[in-house]
Specification:
Elements lengths: L3 H5 L2 E2 L5 E2 L8 E2 H18 L3 H4 L5 H12 L7 E3 L3 H15 L6 E5 L4 H14 L3 E5 L4 H4 L4 E7 L11 H10 L3 E5 L11 H4 L3 E4 L14 E4 L1 H4 L38 H10 L8 H22 L2 H4 L2 E2 L11 E5 L3 H10 L2 E2 L1 E3 L3 E5 L7 H16 L16
Parallel strand pairs: 2-13, 5-6, 5-7, 7-8, 8-9
Antiparallel strand pairs: 1-3, 4-10, 9-10, 11-12, 12-15, 14-15
Helix pairs in contact: 2-11, 4-11, 5-6, 12-15
Length: 401
Amino acid sequence: MTDFAATRALFHLPEGVIYLDGNSLGPLPLAAQTRVGQVLREQWGDQLIRAWNDSDWMALPARVGDRIARLVGAPPASVVTGDTLSIKVFQALAAALALAPPDRRVVLSDSGNFPSDLYIADGLLTALGGRELKVVAPEEVADAINESVAVTMLTEVDYRTGRLHDMAALTARAHAAGAITVWDLAHSAGAIPVHLEQADADFAVGCTYKYLNGGPGSPAFIYVAPRHAGVAQPILSGWLGHAEPFAFERGYRPAPGIERMRVGTPPIVALSILDAALDAWDGVDMGELRAASIRLTETFIREVERRCPTDDCGLALASPRDPHARGSQVSFRHDHAYPVMQALIARGVIGDVRAPDILRFGFTPLYLSEAEVVQSATILADVIDTRAYEAPEYQHRAAVT
């Protein structure tokens, strides 16, 4: 059985803070502090350039990828880490388009997708020419999959509302129509059980600084189904994706398997921090994590609505009511979402806001207790009931919301 009291002890959690924003940036794992010191002093400091061999830096992207693979239901040697999520979206979408039937012109996504993914798709499709990005409402995706679609590009968990797509059903529908699938797991990896291999997904990408606690800007990951790994075209034909980087050949030969999806020199310090952060997942059962997450989100919704009825508070649940239809987050709408959140943060409850009116709260059983969830609901109700959010200091918008 997963011991969530033990996992909580693995994180630096500031006194007096209830952290409900791990879906944006996970807290600091204590092991990361030790690991980064070792990398700086013993590897970079003492070994210098020899560390590429003596500490096996070159293999770190694949080793960390294998650790993530367990958490997303992928087989060994199918996930590699490095670069940013935007780059990995670009790679996956380009490779998927190259595998799709050549007469297909449509990339299908939905309005719940993270805007950055849509920006990347727009840019790539404009450069390729003759293709269209079609964006529909999340609940309309299944009906929009037809024989004009080359690729479906979907985020499994909606970043605003937490609405959860049925990966297996939509992947099966896409394959039946002859389309290739790309899944963004930014709000799934480490939050809910993911079953890439079981769902027969073609490509997947994800970031590691949210529920995986890899730190700000930590490297992203990409998954390629083994059946595609030897033929997927790496549009970013970078040095580290070459079959023999140190042969220094003039021509590009892609590496075998998932290694071809590497691009540039791996960020060793950041990858080492991520590797240390993943220690917290050793022994964690994803089914038990999901059950604990549902208990926390259900408690929060119940306690908020009990203390702050919609008619009195102006709050409206934006997340699906069914806990099995949402990820590990809860969102409420409020006309004054931004100042409400600033007032909450001032009282030690940290969540975030998504424009124009979403109060967003992430729930991470690795370090969050039910008592903290109840306390957060109490503070939220008080902030709204007393109209504390109307104070002038909560009206100024910072650069990051």
